[in-house]
Amino acid sequence: VSLSTDDPRLLDVSSESQRLARPTGTRVWLLLIVNAPLSLWYFSWLLAPQRIGNRALYAILIVAELFNLIQAAGFWWTCADERSRRGAVRPAQMVDVDVLVPVYGEPVDVVEPTIAAAVRMRGARVRVALLDDGDSPEMEALAARYRATYIRRVTRTGAKAGNLNHALRLTSAPAVAVFDCDHVPDPAFLEATLGYLVADSRMAFVQTPQYYANAVKGGLPAAAWAQQALFFGAIARGKDRLGAMFCCGTNVLFRRSALEHVGGFPENSLTEDFELSIRLHALGWRSRYVPEVLARGLGPEDMAAYVSQQHRWARGCLSALPAALRARLPWRLRAQYVLSAMFFLSGWSVLVYMLLPVVRILTGAQPLASASADQFLLHFAPYFTASLLTVVLAGAGMYTFAAFALTAASFWLHIHASLRALLRRPGRFVVTPKRGRAGRQIAAILPALIAIAVLGASACVGLLRDRSPATLNNVAFAALHMCVLLSGAGPALRRSGGVADQAGAEQGHGRSAA
Amino acid sequence: MDGEVTTVPAKPHTTARSDLTAVLLLTVIGFGLRLLVTRSIWLDEAISIGQAQLPFNEMIARLAGDVHPPLHHAALWVAVRLLGTGELAVRMPSIVAGTLLIPVLYGAGRDLYDRRVGLVAATFGTVAPIVIWYSQEARMYAMFMLFSLIAVWAQVRVLRRAGRPGAWAVYSIATAAMIWTQYFAVLQVAVQQATFVISFWQRRGNRWRLGLGWAASMVVIVLLLVPLRPVFESQLQSYIDHSAGLNLPAQAGLGATQQQSQLSVYAFIANVIWGLWGYHADTTMAQIVALWPLGMLLLLVLLGRGYSAMSMLLLSVAAVPALALFGVGLVQRNLFELRYFVGAVPVGLLLMARLASSTENRGPRRLMVALVVVTLAVGLADQQLNGANPRLYDFRGALALVAARARPGDVVVYEPEFIGPVVDYYAADLDATPLSAGLSLPQHGHRVFVVGSFLDEPSSAAEIGKALHQLSEQGRPAGEFRRPNVQVWEFQ
Prior knowledge:
The complex is a heterodimer.
Chain A: H1 14-21, H2 25-46, H3 55-80, E1 96-103, H4 108-118, E2 125-132, H5 137-145, E3 149-152, H6 159-170, E4 175-178, E5 184-185, H7 189-199, E6 203-207, E7 211-212, H8 219-241, E8 252-255, H9 256-261, H10 272-282, E9 286-289, E10 295-297, H11 303-319, H12 321-326, H13 331-342, H14 346-363, H15 373-394, H16 401-409, H17 411-422, H18 446-465, H19 469-493
Helix pairs in contact in A: 2-3, 2-15, 3-8, 3-13, 3-14, 4-5, 8-16, 11-17, 14-17, 14-18, 14-19, 16-19, 18-19
Chain B: H1 12-35, H2 43-52, H3 56-62, H4 71-83, H5 87-112, H6 115-127, H7 129-135, H8 141-160, H9 165-181, H10 185-202, H11 207-225, H12 229-242, H13 265-277, H14 282-289, H15 293-301, H16 309-331, H17 344-356, H18 362-385, H19 395-405, E1 411-415, H20 420-427, E2 433-434, E3 448-453, H21 458-474, E4 477-483, E5 486-491
Helix pairs in contact in B: 1-5, 1-6, 2-4, 2-20, 4-5, 5-6, 5-7, 5-8, 5-17, 6-17, 6-18, 7-18, 8-9, 8-10, 8-17, 9-11, 10-16, 13-14, 16-17, 19-20
């Protein structure tokens, strides 16, 4: 196997790094000054008693709107703080670092650039270990080729977390870097991160962005990266300044003693990184975030992979919500964890917004009374526009319509995951496939397609029934949702050019994780 | 080599020639569409035509009681001398300005973005309903649109290459011409001057070169505006004393979405829609405005598309005057009207062309452009031909009908009084008098024609009702004729 020269993970990403690090706090502050009165204006109008139309619809509208307001306020709070923090200090002496790369059935050509780059990292004595849960002779040969340690388990419990914990017991360096097998580290990764551990003895981990190099191909990976970019840009920088950056599972450097203090990676979680961060912060450990692309990975290339990844994140983060509420955390950190987990409830608000025009068209019931559409627009439009502008500016223009549409089309994932979390149904750790599959993936977007059909049918019913401005207004809302859902579901409706993944990679990682 | 496909890049002169052909074709089509005048002379036009028939100095002196600067009047004065007072003749300055917008849109689009945007913008400009509407009106709005676009284009060129004297000169002259055409152009000038301030502030290199050119352009603009000062001062005094020029009903002042005594967001949206898709019946407008959630979709689609400083300038030039006048309109309702920020329309078309042609995939791009062109064409047809358009006043048709039926000795009266200039324009021979001057009955055997318009205004409706009642008692109704927004009653 030779390294492919057209692998997007080997491309220059300096411009992406610059965009992620671009300060936006001043702009967000300015917009916050605009946003606060506009929000107050809209909600004081919306919450007026005379506005109550159909009580049930009004109640769910208010819950959805308040949920969004809380999310928006959390976003403004997180992104508005632009104080700079001290940069990394170069270690005075050479430090040993174990670099752990867990693998489970991924193709060798995906893993090889990662191992090849890992052994070349500068700034420390690096010992690379390939942790193979797939029991693959090719992986063993790959490790040998790059003089990396090959570690395989006899008893494979705890999925990725179990794999990492097993490796922690077999290694000993004071610092541990973790990379997913598709994330190619930059030679300067340790130079940019290790200093934080050296300078602060309570620093548990240093996180860097989870960049999707295949975003250059456009389509789904680009949309998925645009979602990530908003998080790894303004949000993660803000969390860093609040001391609330959580670990994202890859491209991260840990202090071994911190990991040992909390008993290693939690093996009973779908998002072991999120829960690990809660435990570390609860015990007084600190975290940092470096907004520089120091590893280049592969995002989900098809809708099934995206759904699998997002469902795991949603399920894991929502399941961790009680832990975040129970943990002895400072209020700022607790609020940050709750806000992050609550994001995965936003699918419910999308469902509410889609339902309202359908109900209005089919039954005539509407949530608001004593309010013309003109008045609603007058109060809502400035709030909506200013909020959107804040996202645009805070995200340095990296957040795209495709990313928004993809989130909206995944609304059902949030609903499904939250219901399963509520019912405490066990989840399975599923490795995100690293290669796109050819062919349409209707099953991955079936709920979105059903929503489109319902919206379309009710719009037709409305148009056939009458063409009054009130009906047309609701038909336009239905059309808006349909367009967004169709855009989000689009990648699954097109024939993917991706190569079919090797068998087994998308099979569940075997064991129950909860 | 069999099967090998090689792509030969188009030669620059071939592209230029095909573009030239396309723009020429569009210009010819646009000129033809602008010549297809389907509507009557409007009140304001009739007043302007009356003024333009006076000796030049007297016309300028008469403008002291008006609210508009005199550049268009001067052009109209020349047109009347050269071509006469026919409908096409008096509208020729507007037709020419509105037609010139097509190649200017191409040039601006090509220069500011690329040739694709230029061609799409020119196509949009060819069929844009509101451009055609005001190209068919003997008023200043088509010239306002033309100068507005030229001023913005020149400014972008200036900011790109600070120090080019030609671009500075064009900017200065277009800016002065804009103000000589329409006073509300100062809103656009303010946006453009603010852009210079920001550019000067942000610029690292050749800042002083920009500053020097900017200062020089200011001097030129001020010098060009100096002769306007006496006219402006007398008009301002007249406005303060009598609210001159604002006591006439606005042509765009009718309809459910506009007639409300207080401004609403819906009225704002209606004006934006008029600006791009033209004037339509009130019921149609109410339906279109209700589709505002699709505007949310547009905002969402723009997420992550990036924005250049140039596009932001264009957007500001299009949006700030409208928003400023909306704010003013909250205090003085009649000042918020599309006509007063119509300079934003070509800039809006340019931005729309940019948006429609920004997709790299050819299929969706062509589909999007075709979709916009079709909607513009449908808007144009509805605006020009649908009698339910509340801005279509068929005085020509109504008065032609009266002229065809009236005989010497018949009495022709009209209401309201302010339609007098139009009646004089179309039917000076009829010797018609306003109803407010009194209804003098004809001798036996002669007929009375009552021409009524603005019947949704209570005073006009009451006057007409009273006259019709009186005539019904004394004579026999011989007929009633309806033209768009004008009605004629005939009594034996």
